[in-house]
Amino acid sequence: MRIVLIGEAMLELSRRGEAWRLGHGGDTLNTALHLARAGHDVAYMTALGSDPFSADLVKAWRGEGLDTGLVLRHPDRATGLYAISTDPHGERSFAYWRDTSAARAMFTLPGAERALEQAAQADMIAFSLITLAVLPREGREALHALARSVRQRGGQVAFDGNYRPRLWSDPGEARAERDHAIALATIGLPTLDDERLLSGEAEAAQVAAHWQRLGCGETVVKLGEQGCRLGDGTIIPPPQVLQPVDTSGAGDAFNAGYLGARISGALPLDAARAGHALAGWTVMRPGAIPDRDP
């Protein structure tokens, strides 16, 4: 089963005591790498710069088993950068340098049409509200068309409602783009905190009802340390209470565990448990994509 994720990959600076470590991250990239590590056939569609850092990223992703054939290169722009710090409870804060990142122009670059044609043949595609936030209008329309094509021919379209207010001109624009994507999705992966911030929906049941009403039947609402709510209303708590080292990428890891299990034929209940297991492993290690265990 072929999976294609679309989004923005970034260089990541994470604090290690008094020093900083250079890595990489990005919501859909994190999910793609976890899926590749689990042995799935996964490609990542994005645009990087033509600098040595970008070349290092592609090499690292290939080493993880990720198909980089849909990675486009911008001749002038650089890859975005963010720095991450965590407090004593593992909660994170970010600083970003991404306004002119190469990923924002991915659908205008040479090779974009071919990449879209290949992505349209996937069994599943996945993207997020962050993906839409960094794209101009033409890019969003191209992504909408891709999702529509995949769904119409019977494939799966997964959408994560990751909401980052600073990426949007106003909440109304973000809500409109979110709702458009929900209507194209077959699997929805919203986070309750994001939905509260964006729409004011206080309960997971309200969030699920909104997403399902727009056409996304399989909606799993992520509830943080309380677990998740399945589409039928069942609450699946995590297997144990943890004291996180770093919560970066927890939701992205859950997405990978859930989507990987579902595309392999697991029921939503078992897929949610797989998502919790991978998210739990991730938060007990530093970085959005922790190093593999020996």
What does the model show?
The chain has ten helices and 14 strands. The strands form three sheets. Strands 5-4-1-8-9-10-11 form a seven-stranded parallel β-sheet, with helices on both faces. It has a four-stranded mixed β-sheet with strand order 3-2-6-7. A three-stranded antiparallel β-sheet has the order 12-13-14. It has one domain: Ribokinase (UDP-N-acetylmuramoyl-L-alanine:D-glutamate ligase, 3-Layer(aba) Sandwich), CATH 3.40.1190. It is globular, with a radius of gyration of 18 Å. A hairpin with a 5-residue loop joins strand 6 and strand 7. The protein is an alpha/beta fold. The chain has helices at residues 27-37, 52-63, 112-119, 129-134, 137-152, 171-184, 192-199, 204-213, 250-263, 268-283, and strands spanning 2-6, 10-16, 19-25, 41-48, 71-73, 80-86, 92-97, 124-128, 156-160, 187-188, 218-219, 221-222, 228-229, 235-236.
Summarize the structure.
The protein has 294 residues and is α/β, with parallel strands linked by helices. Helix content is 39%, strand content 21%. The protein has helices at 27-37, 52-63, 112-119, 129-134, 137-152, 171-184, 192-199, 204-213, 250-263, 268-283, and strands at residues 2-6, 10-16, 19-25, 41-48, 71-73, 80-86, 92-97, 124-128, 156-160, 187-188, 218-219, 221-222, 228-229, 235-236.
How is the secondary structure organized here?
Elements (H helix, E strand, L loop, with lengths): L1 E5 L3 E7 L2 E7 L1 H11 L3 E8 L3 H12 L7 E3 L6 E7 L5 E6 L14 H8 L4 E5 H6 L2 H16 L3 E5 L10 H14 L2 E2 L3 H8 L4 H10 L4 E2 L1 E2 L5 E2 L5 E2 L13 H14 L4 H16 L11
Parallel strand pairs: 1-4, 1-8, 2-6, 4-5, 8-9, 9-10, 10-11
Antiparallel strand pairs: 2-3, 6-7, 12-13, 13-14
Helix pairs in contact: 1-9, 9-10
